[in-house]
Amino acid sequence: MQQFINQTADYLKDKGFDAPEIGIILGTGLGQLLDKVDIIKTVSYNHIPNFPTATVEFHTGKLIYGTLEGKKVVVMEGRFHVYEGYSLTDVTYPVRVMHALGIKKLLVSNASGAINLDFKKGELMLIDDHINLQGGSPLAFKGVEQMGERFVDMSAPYDKAMNQKLREIAKENNIKLHEGVYASVVGPQLETRAEYRYLKIIGADAVGMSTVPEIIVANHLKLPVVAVSVLTDECDPDNLEPVNIPEIIEMAGKAEPVMITLFTELIKTL
To answer: Where do the Nucleoside phosphorylase domain residues begin and end (predicted)?
Structure first.
């Protein structure tokens, strides 16, 4: 795998991706951050050697290099999911490539459903911990020990210093920022009423279909990472309505400006 990663990184370096400092992964419906980026280079995923290709209609599938708040950034506009038929190794391949390009911090966003009914759609949740329900690990492959420690410690997978900065930024900007546990499931089907009850019992505050694999690999690479969920719907099993994907995407777009404030203000401090 390292040979493929090096090949991909060399291609991007030749395209002008010069020593990015921060990597950013944008979740479903979350693309407005790019309005803040002084874009230098954009490359479609299907042009990048060894890269997966985004297949979800609201994930555009571009890797973007530019500057944001004076820092060089590489932004994934569209991520990969197990439910698209990709392996966990595929899903996390871009994290390894961004690390090979030189990033020192990783910021992750996602759209998720609120299991904790004290949380409302349109609000944000800082992920403090997670539950992996994707049925596998992006580190479960032969030769992983050649790329980092096999038995990665996950006692504190989200960077404490950056999390604290995000709390302070939220307070300074009067942003309601919940904090909690994110459960990552395979999907693509949404959860049943019984599954929502189960997720609440095991300690989840929000649920989605991404993020955890990338966090695991970031920890494998000893890459400090934070993640913020935009809560797009409320998962109340006693009052569950049929899912409305366009409404979820619309809610993500409405809530995104607040997330952008968190990320841009954090980047200023890094």
So the answer is: 21-268
